[in-house]
């Protein structure tokens, strides 16, 4: 039984590393593609088990993890295929996805949850996200995609403006940690 647990954790860790590399590549300067697929366009059948193991391990240590190792996913609104909770676009049909519940501003902009942040890095990530999500790029898409784009873009703007100012960043951090402690 212990051997099976190790295998699952290795697979989860490998999946997390791939997602992390793809997220980092997406936020590099000049990365404006919307078709990045962290796990090759497939949802891992081990995702629910990995999520449960991650939660159990973090609870036994007395803290919550900054990023889950594996995400359970949600169905795409357009094609119903599995989409990771942190993915902006469906890997199957490339449709923009609605904002996921529970993502904080630091996760949205791929920043460390800390008061001290690199403002230039934050600006670069903000610009790259807006290149992907701005409603002007969805003018020829369906009404639903335009609405989702507006929501996503608005959320990115709000996150950026909150994290850009040291005062609002501090207030956000205090409110974030007072909720989860």
Description:
By secondary structure, the protein is mainly α. It folds into 2 domains: 1-87, no CATH class; 98-181, DnaJ domain (Helix Hairpins), CATH 1.10.287.110. Helices cover 53% and strands 2% of the residues. It contains 6 helices and 2 strands, in the order ααββαααα. It has a two-stranded antiparallel sheet. The two termini are 33 Å apart. One of its GO terms (molecular function) is ATPase activator activity. This is J domain-containing protein. InterPro entries: DnaJ_domain, HscB, J_dom_sf.
Number of domains: 2
- Judged by helices, strands and strand pairing, the structural class is mainly alpha
Number of strands: 2
Low-confidence stretches: 18-71
The coarse silhouette is globular
Q: In order across it, which strands form the biggest sheet? A: 1-2
Strand content: under 5%
GO molecular function, one term: ATPase activator activity
Protein name: J domain-containing protein
Organism: Eleutherodactylus coqui (Puerto Rican coqui)
Please give the structural blueprint.
Layout lengths: L1 H25 L20 H15 L12 E2 L6 E2 L21 H4 L10 H15 L9 H22 L1 H15 L1
Antiparallel strand pairs: 1-2
Helix pairs in contact: 4-5, 5-6
Structure described in brief:
The protein contains 6 helices and 2 strands. The chain is mostly helical and 181 residues long.
């Amino acid at each position: 039984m212990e051997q099976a647990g190790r295998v699952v954790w290795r697979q989860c860790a490998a999946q997390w590393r791939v997602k992390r590399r793809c997220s980092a590549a997406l936020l590099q300067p000049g990365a404006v593609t919307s078709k990045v697929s962290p796990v090759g366009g497939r949802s891992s059948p081990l995702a629910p088990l990995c999520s449960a193991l991650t939660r159990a391990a973090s609870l036994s240590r007395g803290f919550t993890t900054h990023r889950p190792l594996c995400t359970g996913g949600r169905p795409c609104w357009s094609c119903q295929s599995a989409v990771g909770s942190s993915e902006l676009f469906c890997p199957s049909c490339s449709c923009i996805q609605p904002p996921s519940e529970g993502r904080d501003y630091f996760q949205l902009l791929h920043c460390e949850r800390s008061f001290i942040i690199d403002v230039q890095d934050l600006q670069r990530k903000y610009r790259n996200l807006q290149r992907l999500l701005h409603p002007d790029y969805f003018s020829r898409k369906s009404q639903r995609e335009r609405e989702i784009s507006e929501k996503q873009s608005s959320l990115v703007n709000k996150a950026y403006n909150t994290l850009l100012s040291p005062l609002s960043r501090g207030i956000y951090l205090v409110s974030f940690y007072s909720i989860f402690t």
